[in-house]
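Please check this.
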Amino acid sequence: MDKKDIYEHLAKIYLDASTQKKKKIKESSRFKYLVFASLAIALSLTIILSGYFRKNKQPNVQISLVLLNEASKINFNFDPAKKEIYAISLNKLNLGKFTMLAFALKKYNYTDNVSVRVEFINAFREKSEVYLKNISSRWQDYKIKLGDFKGISDWSEMADLSFIVEEWNAKGKKGVVYIDNVRLLR
């Protein structure tokens, strides 16, 4: 072997070894690039989707129990009667986990001056009421905290929910009050 052969042999070994190193470096850099790219994509999708769901999230969602989902009316005529009642039987329903009563009211004639008494009665005949004055001739939503019904100590077995128009709480002897969307909220 002469010098030329030795140099060629060393160059071949060196060049083959350096190309293998370059291949390993290229493969590891591709792997690092793929890992980085997939992490970047996952992070950006997480940010985008969390922003979307945060934007479309309803912040005041409440669990409700609907007691009356269609409009009903109290058609009062105080010629012989002294009060008109619209009652919803609760059949010993446990309202202990609910915090609010919600509903919508309106009067038929805008010139009427009508007040409505909202009353709960439990199975033990405890009774409590809240008065709503100056009912509007347009639909108006009401929310009453169950804590405002002070006469009820046990909400575990409720008997009735009533909406009452009394003669002394109405300006005229005849009229109509509409009730809609009666529900209990947690």
